[in-house]
Amino acid sequence: MKVVVKKENIRLDQYLVEELGISRSQVLKMIKNDEVLVNGKKTKSGYNVINGDIIDVNHEENNDILPEKMDLDIVYEDEYLLVVNKPNGMVVHPAPGNYHGTLVNGLLAHGKLSDVNGEFRPGIVHRIDAYTTGLLMVAKTNKVHETLAKELSEKKTYRKYIALVWGILPSDTGEIDAPIGRSPRDRKKMAVVAGGKRAVTHFKVLKRFEKATLISVTLETGRTHQIRVHMDYIGHPVVNDPLYGGRKLIDDTGQCLHAKELGFTHPVTHEYMQFDSELPECFTDILKKFE
User: Which residues are catalytic?
Assistant: First the structure.
């Protein structure tokens, strides 16, 4: 597996935890066993990666990323890109220990994808968590991928989420501007931490229930678990979130968080395109319990 670094000044072990979605202990074991090379050389876990570094992960298990026929919910498609509505529970791309059943496996069976992000993330311009549902844009060519990624980094891509959060939000609208980084207490989690990367979340109340609030959320930045971390930070964690908030789970379908709307300028036609999607059944089933 080959990974091209797109970040600066982050430890090698931390970078691989974030990129591969595996535990730090797994990463440290691979580094210790000389299964991780940076620019062709053995490197310590504390090495600070820089933009353009090439990381080779030579894990012993069979890590071939194979096409798998899936019934994907493709909202839009042309010869340059597609927009897919990701279902609940589906991981976006493979990682060590999880090489099958991901969205990438299904996309590979569907057709051509860009390879800007290496063999593990072909076509993937941006990600959402396994138990977050909703819209993702996927690139078929490298040029289109780079243009979409640039628009995303310049905060020109429109993304609106719907979330059900615990408690009653007192204000109809709000902004959360708090830096996010890896939690020092639990490496599986992100947290609002001093020295973290700037993260800005905007929310608007759609409906208040007795014990929860339905909100729409738009993002200025795209940090890992951003909405889940920010809502937990202000004391209103996402309902049914198994990682944040410490609340009793309603079922095992994951957090009530859906990437509902996605808008961007087409890299080739330069037409602005916007897509919408319905809340999935796993979300609406929980919502009915509060209505």
Answer: 129
* pLDDT by position in tens, the chain (length 291): 777 887 777 889 888 877 776 667 778 888 888 889 999 888 888 899 988 888 888 765 546 688 999 999 999 999 999 999 999 999 998 876 677 889 999 999 999 999 887 777 899 999 999 999 999 999 999 999 999 999 999 989 999 999 999 999 999 999 999 999 989 888 779 999 999 999 999 999 999 999 999 999 999 998 999 999 999 999 999 999 999 998 999 999 999 999 999 999 999 999 999 999 999 999 999 999 998
Residue 77 lies inside a defined structural domain of this protein: yes
Q: Is residue 263 part of a domain?
A: no
> What CA–CA distance (Å, rounded) separates 104 from 120?
8
Q: From CA 43, how far away is CA 21, in angstroms rounded?
A: 20
Whole-prediction pTM: 0.80
Which CATH number fits the domain that encloses residue 89? 3.30.2350.10
Q: Domains in the chain: how many in total?
A: 3
HSE, CB side, 13 Å, CA atoms: give it for residue 158.
13
Q: Whats the size of the chain, residue-wise?
A: 291
- Whichever domain contains 42, its CATH number is 3.10.290.10
